[in-house]
Design a protein that fits this description.
8 helices; 4 strands; 52% helix; mainly alpha; two-stranded antiparallel ribbon; 3 domains
Length: 215
């Protein structure tokens, strides 16, 4: 069987067609036998003797088609001066059927069964066998402490040259406090968040925390 692979037009206006010869590996009669074997395998009330006879006919038909395919491919490769080594390798690939091993040690060549074996293998391979306990998240308790680095980052992120709030503390004044001020503020705000602070402070602390955005 010859099929047109591509066409091209030469400068003088002539149209050329490149032909490629291809052969059908499996004949129609063999395909009918394979369909019959599949139907018998899926049928629940199929006779074992009939299945055995269809399997024998399928193996003989496939072996005959493969032999005819080899007889066509080798002379063609020799006439076209192509690589006989690559042609022989291709024929070996066709001659070795793909099969999977079941759990009971039997071989299967059915596409559906091989897909099921592959799915079951990788499911068991990547399935976790270690029991993971559910994390116990504590409820209530004390609030976490505020670190000096958090206060230092908050002061650095404040806008410069802005008007101070009701507490008369500006961002420039906080930056002028140096390295020790964030540590003192972190200790003070940790105490404030844990509700251990004196009641004589008035509203100064609230306005300062709103300005720092760390409440």
């Amino acid at each position: 069987m010859e099929i047109c692979r591509w066409t091209w037009r030469s400068p003088n206006g002539t149209t050329h067609a490149e032909l490629e010869t291809t052969y059908q590996l499996t004949q129609d009669a063999t395909k009918d036998l394979l369909r019959t074997r599949r139907n018998l395998r899926l049928a629940q009330n199929g006779a074992d003797l009939e299945r055995l006879q269809v399997n024998i006919n399928c193996r003989q038909a496939v072996r005959r088609d493969l032999q005819q395919y080899r007889e066509r491919r080798l002379p063609e490769a020799a006439s076209k001066r192509t690589s006989l080594k690559n042609c022989h390798r291709d024929l070996q690939d066709y001659g070795i059927p793909l099969s999977f091993l079941e759990k009971d040690g039997t071989l299967t060549t059915s596409g559906f069964e091989m897909e099921e074996v592959t799915r079951r293998f990788y499911t068991n391979l990547y399935r976790s066998t270690t029991h993971v306990r559910e994390p116990k998240i504590p409820t209530g308790g004390t609030a976490p402490r505020i670190f000096p680095s958090e206060v230092r980052v908050a002061i650095a992120s404040m806008e410069t040259s802005t008007t101070s709030g009701p507490d008369k503390i500006s961002a420039d004044l906080l930056r002028a406090g140096g390295y020790e001020l964030p540590a003192l503020l972190a200790t003070h705000m940790t105490t404030f968040r844990r509700r251990r602070f004196p009641t004589s402070g008035g509203t100064r602390g609230w306005s300062f925390f709103a300005k720092m955005r760390l409440g």
